[in-house]
């Protein structure tokens, strides 16, 4: 049985130096707001189809959403750039300490924020405390109308009522790529795989990859001038960098 | 309470006796009989109300909860971004109600406030029953309540523990501690009364009281032990009481939400709890006095007057902390907090913000300064209920209304309650139901405490003046 020391829990420091292992860069200037990422994410991650009534009440399930805002006073109204918003995989995540059941935890290996579905008891405190409001709750057991059950992804759990879920940076893809690389005795190449949203984006507005590798595309992009993190002032150390108006 | 003897000296002894329970002694046997009779005496009206409440509770609380467990929380109105709705409002509300019992009984006992004697039991019962409702409210809010035992630290194969960083774990520990200690504190002073009831009853009641009285005979040694235990509990439970609502406030205060992360929330919540709790105590006392036999002898205008003064002071304290909280949030100048404060006052539910101030401050301040109005059971119990409405609004503003606004304007949305409403009504009826059942099963008046007080107080004549003298009480 592993003791706390073997798990290195004492050594976890969520300090400013903590750099995520995986990161994402989003270029809002080229995002067209087509919502392809939203659809791809829902299919990849077995998101529930909530139906018209619940969706009308604002309970539709998305791990990524495209936020649109309008600027200025009528008649000089201007639409701002589309803003894809998903879990920022905070380095110091406010959702984690408030969970009484340890259902939302930091992963040591991937340095991302995990949601352990079968440990969640549904207090929804994490969702209240997530400043980005990106968590989705399973308000009911939703039925998938035919033929939707046929496209379920076997690598991803199907969630039931009463539990919280959110973007995982497609951790099943990360693991598959790592397993593949390990079997071939090599490191994961940059660009060998990517998340469902980045893969489906026709405008290439989303780039995903290793942040701890200075040569990777995503770290090169993130280092450009003008990048910003949302609500950085809260000290959440987000791992998603946005470019807007560059 | 005896301070006003100068003004009333000329009215003579009769006036004193009529006014103060402590100066109007009856033989112990007679008081015991009165209390026993108040338990036995049940009218058909009682059963009608009891049946009605039981039916409402069965439907609104248990059936609705069953539906919610079977269907999922979708039947409730909670939704992003108001993930906590009336469930949490009611949890905080009921914990607040439960504070009055301890406050009245432990603090007044420690400070030897004599007017507490007849109604400590009635107040302590509210603590226990209020906490039961708080428990219901918090458990029904959980998405998978059937797994709630995962919040308990119990040894298990995978060495999984609850997260002690989470304020919800603190809550669980604090509320459980409070429930257990307040139940014991309710039980200890009850033992002599249970023994009294045992000696005066027959049939199943005899067995019931015999079991609960734990063989208390009233020997000197037993009394000494009992008094010691009560003393320890009275002192020990006060910090527990203060800590419970402080910890409940940390659920909000440690979060990163605008409007929640306020350092003053601890004392602000405690005083709010006392505010609603005292209001509930007067309402319950007025109902007991109005409906139960012989209670007009035990619960008198002087008691409402004394609680009324406390209510006025607590209302002032609440107003101070409210202002302090508001002032600091506003002065902080955070953009989102500014939005939120504006939303509280001028948003779609802005009337609630103003109603809260009227119920919690304006009404008590306008009515409770007057001694005659304070002593009127009907009027003061209405004030008590109004305060409770105001305090419920306060929690509603803190929980769902503050949650409607956050740092991501794209997700702003008003909260519309669904099945929370019958569930909330169910907790109220269940509370009343438990109280009604208890009023018929356990002596509501601690006769021995009243008699002890009556023996200590005496009227003496010094020249032309009548003076209340008190002998040393342990
Ligand atoms: S964005 Fe929200 S859900 Fe994701 S890690 Fe940060 S606090 Fe948690
Ligand atoms: S798929 Fe790409 S372009 Fe379309 S909404 Fe998503 S990020 Fe924007």
Question: What is the topological layout?
Answer:
The complex is a heterodimer of chains A (246) and B (474).
Chain A: E1 22-27, H1 36-44, H2 51-56, E2 64-67, E3 70-71, E4 78-79, E5 83-86, E6 104-106, E7 113-115, H3 125-129, E8 136-137, E9 164-165, H4 171-183, H5 196-200, E10 206-210, H6 217-223, E11 227-228, E12 240-243
Chain B: H1 5-8, H2 12-19, H3 28-40, H4 44-71, H5 86-110, H6 120-140, H7 167-187, H8 190-199, H9 203-213, H10 220-253, H11 265-291, H12 295-298, H13 301-332, H14 335-346, H15 350-368, H16 371-374, H17 377-403, H18 420-441, H19 447-456, E1 457-462, E2 465-470
Antiparallel strand pairs in B: 1-2
Helix pairs in contact in B: 4-18, 5-6, 5-10, 5-11, 5-17, 6-7, 6-18, 7-10, 8-9, 10-11, 11-13, 11-17, 13-15, 14-15, 15-17
The complex binds iron/sulfur cluster (2 copies).
Structure report:
Chain A is an alpha+beta fold and 246 residues long. The longest helix of chain A has 13 residues, at 171-183. Chain A has helices spanning 36-44, 51-56, 125-129, 171-183, 196-200, 217-223, and strands spanning 22-27, 64-67, 70-71, 78-79, 83-86, 104-106, 113-115, 136-137, 164-165, 206-210, 227-228, 240-243. In chain A, 41% of the residues are buried. In chain A, strand 6 (104-106) and strand 7 form a beta hairpin. Chain B is built from 19 helices and 2 strands. The longest helix of chain B has 34 residues, at 220-253. The model of chain B has no long low-confidence stretch (mean pLDDT 89). By secondary structure, chain B is an all-alpha fold. The two termini of chain B are 19 Å apart. Chain B has a two-stranded antiparallel sheet. The chains are: A alpha+beta (246), B mainly alpha (474). The interface between A and B is large, with 45 and 43 residues. The complex binds iron/sulfur cluster (2 copies). One iron/sulfur cluster is lined by residues 31-37, 66, 82, 84, 200-201, 203, 205-206 of chain A.
């Amino acid at each position: 049985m592993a003791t706390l020391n073997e798990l290195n829990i004492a050594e976890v420091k969520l300090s400013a130096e903590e750099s995520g292992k995986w990161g994402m860069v989003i270029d809002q200037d080229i995002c067209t707001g087509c919502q392809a990422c939203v659809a791809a994410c829902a299919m990849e991650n077995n998101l529930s189809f909530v139906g018209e009534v619940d969706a009308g009440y604002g309970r539709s399930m998305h791990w990524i959403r495209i936020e649109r805002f309008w600027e200025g006073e009528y008649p000089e109204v201007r639409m701002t750039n589309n803003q894809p918003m998903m879990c920022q995989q905070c380095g110091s995540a406010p959702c984690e300490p408030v969970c009484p059941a340890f259902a939302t935890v930091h992963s040591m290996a991937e340095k991302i924020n995990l949601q352990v579905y079968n440990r969640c008891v549904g207090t929804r405190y994490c969702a209240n405390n997530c400043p980005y409001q990106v968590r989705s709750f399973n308000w009911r057991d939703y039925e998938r109308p035919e033929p939707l059950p046929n496209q379920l992804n076997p690598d991803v759990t199907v969630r039931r009522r009463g539990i919280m879920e959110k973007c995982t940076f497609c951790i099943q893809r990360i693991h598959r790529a790592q397993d593949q690389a390990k079997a071939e005795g090599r490191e994961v190449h940059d660009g060998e795989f990517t998340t469902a949203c980045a893969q489906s984006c026709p405008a290439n507005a989303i780039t995903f990859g290793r942040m701890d590798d200075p040569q990777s595309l995503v770290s090169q992009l993130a280092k450009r001038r003008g990048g910003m993190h949302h609500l950085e002032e809260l000290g959440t150390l987000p791992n998603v960098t946005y470019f807007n108006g560059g | 309470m005896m301070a006003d003897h100068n003004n009333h000296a000329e009215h003579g002894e009769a006036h004193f006796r009529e006014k103060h329970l402590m100066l109007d002694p009856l033989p112990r046997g007679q008081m015991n009989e009165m209390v026993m009779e108040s338990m036995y005496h049940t009218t058909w009206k009682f059963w009608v109300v009891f049946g009605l409440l039981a039916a409402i509770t069965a439907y609104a609380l248990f059936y609705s909860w069953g539906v919610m467990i079977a269907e999922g929380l979708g039947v409730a109105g909670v939704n992003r971004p108001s993930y906590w709705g009336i469930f949490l409002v009611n949890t905080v509300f009921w914990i607040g109600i439960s504070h009055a019992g301890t406050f009245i009984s432990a603090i007044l006992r420690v400070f030897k406030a004599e007017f507490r004697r007849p109604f400590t039991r009635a107040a302590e019962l509210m603590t226990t029953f209020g906490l039961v409702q708080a428990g219901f409210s918090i458990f029904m809010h959980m998405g998978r309540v059937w797994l709630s035992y995962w919040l308990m630290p119990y040894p298990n194969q995978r060495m999984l523990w609850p997260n002690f960083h989470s304020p919800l774990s603190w809550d669980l520990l604090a509320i459980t501690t409070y429930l257990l200690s307040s139940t014991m504190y309710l039980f200890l002073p009850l033992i002599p009364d249970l023994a009294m009831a045992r000696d005066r009853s027959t049939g199943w009641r005899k067995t019931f009281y015999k079991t609960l009285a734990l063989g208390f005979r009233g020997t000197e040694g037993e009394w000494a032990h009992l008094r010691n235990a009560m003393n320890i509990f009275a002192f020990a439970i006060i910090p527990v009481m203060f800590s419970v609502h402080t910890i409940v406030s940390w659920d909000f205060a440690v979060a990163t939400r605008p409007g929640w992360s306020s350092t003053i929330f601890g004392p602000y919540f405690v005083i709010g709890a006392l505010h609603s709790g005292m209001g509930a105590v007067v309402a319950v006392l007025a109902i007991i006095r109005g409906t139960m036999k012989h209670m007009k002898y035990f619960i008198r205008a002087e008691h409402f007057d004394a609680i009324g003064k406390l209510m006025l002071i607590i209302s002032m304290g609440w107003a101070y902390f409210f202002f302090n909280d508001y002032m600091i949030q506003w002065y902080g100048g955070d953009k989102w907090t500014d939005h939120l404060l504006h939303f509280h006052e001028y948003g779609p539910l802005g009337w609630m913000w103003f109603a809260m101030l009227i119920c919690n401050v304006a009404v008590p301040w306008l009515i409770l300064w007057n001694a005659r109005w304070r002593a009127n059971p009907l009027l003061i119990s209405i004030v008590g209920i109004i305060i409770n409405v105001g305090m419920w609004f306060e929690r509603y503003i803190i929980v769902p209304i503050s949650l409607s606004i956050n740092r991501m304007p794209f997700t702003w949305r008003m909260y519309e309650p669904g099945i929370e409403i019958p569930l909330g009504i169910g907790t109220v009826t269940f509370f009343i139901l438990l109280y009604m059942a208890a009023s018929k099963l356990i002596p509501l008046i601690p006769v021995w405490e009243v008699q002890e007080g009556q023996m200590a107080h005496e009227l003496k004549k010094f020249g032309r003046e009548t003076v209340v003298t008190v002998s040393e009480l342990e």
